[in-house]
Amino acid sequence: MAVCAAIIGKDNSSKFFVTLNPDEELHFQYKVLSSLDIIEDKLATGTKGGADTKELYLGMLLSLETYKIYGYVTNTKIKFVIVVDSTNVVLRDNEIRSMFRKIHSEFADIVSNPFYIPGEPIISKNFTTSMKNIMTGTV
Q1: What does the record list as coiled-coil region(s) (predicted)?
Q2: Which segments in the chain show pLDDT lower than 50?
C-alpha cells in the first residue's frame, strides 16, 4: 500500500499530490521533492549511457528508514512518484509497476478532458478518489 502519490510536471512543478494521512502532507512533499534530483540524474545517465530509454519505470529512487520512494517518467517527461511504507514487505516490484500503469492511465484520462488546461494543477475529486483507490489497492 502506498502512503503518498505525486505527479510532477516536466518543469518540476507539482501537478497533483495526495497522501492517505493529510497531517503528514508537508513531510511527504519534502521526500518527493528530494527524489526529483535522483530522477533527473537517472534520466541524464540513461540518455548518455545508451541505456534503454523506452523504460518508463525508474525503480526505487530512495530507501529511507520508514519509506521507500519509487519513480516513473512518461515519454513527455511527466514524473510520477509513489511513497511506500517500508514495513510493507508484501508489495513487490510488479505491484509497483501496476500502480504506475494505473496512475498513468488515470492521468491520460484527466488530461484528455477538454476542460483541463494543460500545465495547470489537477483539481478533481474523482481523480483524487481514484488515486487513493490505486494507492490502497482497492481498484
Answers
A1: none
A2: 49-51
